[in-house]
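In response to reviewer comment 3 from the previous cycle, which asked for concrete evidence that the modeling workflow produces usable outputs, we include below a single protein chain processed end to end. The sequence was submitted unchanged, and the resulting structure tokens are shown without manual editing.
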Amino acid sequence: MSPIVEKLKALRKYMSAQNIAAIIIPSNDPHFSEYVADRWKTREWISGFTGSAGTVVITTNNAALWTDSRYFIQAEKELQNSGIELKKLRIEGTESIEDWLKQQLTARSKIAIDKDLYSIAEFESLKKSLTPLCLVPIDDPFDEIWNSRPGLPSEKAFLITDDITGESVSSKLSRLREILNQQNESYIYPVTLLDEIAWLCNIRGNDISYNPLVLTYALVTPKHAYLFINTDKLTHEDKATLEEQGITIHGYDDIDKIVKHHQKERFCIFNPKKTAVGTFRILEEAGFDLINENDPNGTITSLKSIKNEVEQEGFRKAMVDDGVALVRFQRWLEQEIKSGNVTELSAANCLFEFRKQNDNFIDNSFSSIMGYKEHGAIVHYAATPESDITIKPEGFLLFDTGGQYRYGTTDVTRTIHLSEPNEQEKEDYTLVLKGMIALSMAKFPAGTRGVQLDVLARQYLWSKGKNYMHGTGHGIGHFLNVHEGPQSIRMEENPVVLKPGMITSNEPGLYIEGKYGIRIENLTLCKQEQLEATSSFMGFETLTLAPIDLKPIDISMLIPAEIDWLNRYHKMVFERISPRLNSDEIEWLKEKTKAI
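The workflow returned the following structure tokens.
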């Protein structure tokens, strides 16, 4: 019997004892993080599927896992002989979790979710859509069935100073309270998302891969602010600094005790999308009048999305550091692939080592994508020892990588051709490049949403009947999460308008299954533009500094404005990066950034 089958057997025994007909297991943690600490990788542990996104549903007799197109191939392999069926999201004929459960179970059957892994908004929506089945929140079932389950991370946390953040904790608390006071002057405000707390308290940590976060909760009232954390993570000096800034420190699990001390604060302002069912119940049982936060995206998330001038300059500094590493990596790659010893994994590791040469580099900002030839067509490909292939001096290589630096976060994608591209490869590459340039050059009035700009990046692909299914742009955190809201640039409607200070990716792509993938990504800063128009207009400053491969470009497809943009961009790349390079590296970069 396979290990997964054994685990399913243990879970079903638990379900039987609790009179549970089915259990839904998502991929998140109590803080709704994109990446989770090992302790909360319950969906991965029970299913064997290691992708970052997916939901597994287990009944007495059947099991299925829903995931998106990024992971179809990976999931099919990892679910083999597990007894878990793959359900492909957004593919015609794939039923929803709710419909599947209604087919499996009889009315009034009890379906369980971990009370700490679902927000109250998700719970109420799911509860309604599952009727006539009964959705019930329960305590974490894996504590009973997962032998040697990892404990909470014990990594040390650290504070970052105002010369990096551009704003003190006390100032951020004042701005937050000013907004909350407009909603009610007697409140308690729980904060559960790790990046929101990290921003508010100027604190960072190493509890989660890729994101410099520490496991915490926070609570803000008109006069007090509390940070709930494993107190061993902080030095005496850091504790004193936080207390001077108006933060009182308590243990990670003590939020319910402090909530009860603040029952005189009549109201609880909370965000139903960001408050777990378990936390909601603590607040409810304490007797607060619960009122929804006015900002549906979260007040802190909206404040955090606007980078101040110090943060903006930190990003620019990080881009130079990252650009140096990318130049050295590409130069190394060109020299070494002739040996036949370079693989996707070794190339990704080499780029990591080049980044590590910088003392201010902390870690990768996400799991690196190094997709050679057909692997580049898998949008979020992750090389494994089983899939790892040799990179040869032929065809396309797509690499999407990023770094966490003490003063900024990077996310960059380049697609390079390692031999002589054919006409179709040139056309596809140039269509993607034209879309990236069009979005880079966009000028737009205040109040514009990302969905209104998305077509700029897709228009040339659409003219040839081609498209890509991922978003064009996501927000970026400042030495925080590489994927950050509330803004986005994508086909789906998002009511958030783009504002000066927001940093967003620009990453159109094209994926030819079985052949190659193409994506070109820069990070951009939304800025006010000085135009002749009387109304307020904005545009983008491109921040990323890395050469764009000239070899696959069909220059006949570019208009003069596009050629001018590309030449000016490459001139900027050379001027910013070359002072940090040796003479051989400078000559290499000069060739890669020459005017066309």
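The longest helix spans residues 309-336. We consider this sufficient to address the reviewer's concern, and the full set will be provided in the supplementary archive.
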